[in-house]
Amino acid sequence: MNLHSLIEAIGISVSKAQQGIEQHSIERFFDYFKDPNTAMPASSGNTNSIPQGFEPITAKVVMPCSDNINRTAPAEIPLVALAHHRQVHLDKITFKVRTRLTSDNSGSIMADINAPVLNTANSLEEPETDQVNGTGEIELVFNVTDSAEGISRVVQNISKTI
Fold first, then answer.
1. What's the sign of the alpha-carbon dihedral 10, 15, 19, 22?
2. Please, are residues 77 and 57 in contact by the beta-carbon 8 Å criterion?
């Protein structure tokens, strides 16, 4: 396998995993909103075509009044402001691959994945006994960027009403 193709395939897989996590996070975020026309949770529909005008789902909580602690008053608390929205987050992904690197006449580097390690007597060695005949371990590290701030800003603005 071409080393460039290996790195590209792993990078695409990491990117798809991050997209899947973000899509799931958006769907769960809309569990805290309702469509005022149907009273159904927003996530029960297709989130790819989310209509405008969703309202936060609230819970009525009796709270002490700020001017007199002996008095209470009901307050509608948006559930979205009470929930933690970072369910899963990819930060850093590390791949370690045992390989033997070779080069062809054009200068391309080829990777023989999980290649056996042969010693000078052509007998197999334990993988931990190090690089013989160009065999070693490649470590690929992908740092995933922070997710969009949009959700935290929406929650922050909703929380201002509390």
1. positive
2. no
68-114 pLDDT tens trace: 888 998 988 888 888 877 666 677 888 888 887 777 778 777 777 76
- Answer whether 34's CB lies under 8 Å from 41's CB: yes
155's tokens? 């929650």
Torsions phi, psi for 24 (to 5 deg): -60, -40
The two three-digit tokens of residue 120, written as one number: 């000078």
Q: How far apart are CA 124 and CA 118, in angstroms?
A: 5
CA angle 160, 37, 149 (to 5 degrees): 35
Helix (H, G, I), strand (E, B) or coil at 140: strand
Structure tokens given for 77: 């608390």
